[in-house]
Amino acid sequence: MTIYTGFIGTYTKQDGKGIHTFELDTEKAELLHAAVAAEVNNSTYITISENEQFLYAVEKGGKGGGLAAFSIDNGKLNKLNDVLDSEGVPCHVSLNKSGTRAFTAQYHTGTAEMYSINAETGELVDLLDVATHEGTGPNLDRQEKAHTHFFGTTRDERFVIAVDLGTDEIITYEVAGEDLLKKSVFKTEPGAGPRHIVFHPKECIAYVMTELSNEVLVLAFDEQEGTFEQLAAHKTIPHDFTENSQGSAIRISSDGRFVYAGNRGHNSIAVFETSEDGRRIQLLEIVSTNGDWPRDFDLDPTEMFLVVAHEKTHNVVLFKRGASGQLTPANSEVTVPEGVCVTFLKGN
User: Fold this and answer.
1) What does the pLDDT average to over 176-191?
2) I need a surface site. Which of 15, 31, 287, 342 has the fewest CB within 10 A?
3) What is the pTM (predicted TM-score) of this model?
């Protein structure tokens, strides 16, 4: 198979329509056929079920917002339903592997929320529980209150992890039926502004992208207790860069050898190589993304390519990924307005 389908969640403030689709031809190293897949109000983050039958998107509407569910049919989206009972609009959504729960992060309300799903039909059922964060950080402009930016499960799904930019906290929850129970809290350095987290696929190590300090934090994770311990912090932009830059997405290759971190403002991706069972990372390169404000990126299913969506220049750019983990422009791009989130169907 050489053609893979990708989806991009977008803002709808200008020309973005919500969920857009595109194709990647891995044989020709080319992006193709960008188009609107479904019009959804401010559908800035999306995720696909493990069986690839359903797609879930954050949505603005109702009391504030919530989630919309779609079935996937040959790369096309058909809306199933939505649940818009949240007081705010989520900025992140993830699923458990069985497809029975969705987890959303609410930046503006500082909450982490859990939804129930009918795994057979893919339809959303109800907003089950809302965990509210409280606190501030030293950055008066960005940390005046809690701002949850990520909510997703650990590898074994024993815990669900919330990352709060406003309070400089990484909060571990347990799921007890229909309830979220707080288990532990890890505090980053004040003002770091943690945004997203990824887990090493084989080791008890996590990597956190900070938005305000532009760093990757290397954390040891206790899978039994749900606690974190910081091992190191690495800058993702040059030390002499003094203009505005904000950390964005973080991804890890499926073999755990390479970590990729995005920088909005510096408009780049920092490439790190892992060693010592993931406990150490070394910066290999910082590569220009050839656009403005790289909000998100993802590896394609073959992991031979990386696709970057730019919010401000509205271009989606393709990079080739070598065996060394390093990135090379493929000189191919498509236009998707206000791109915020990138994900792929794995295909067969």
Assistant:
1) 98
2) 15
3) 0.98
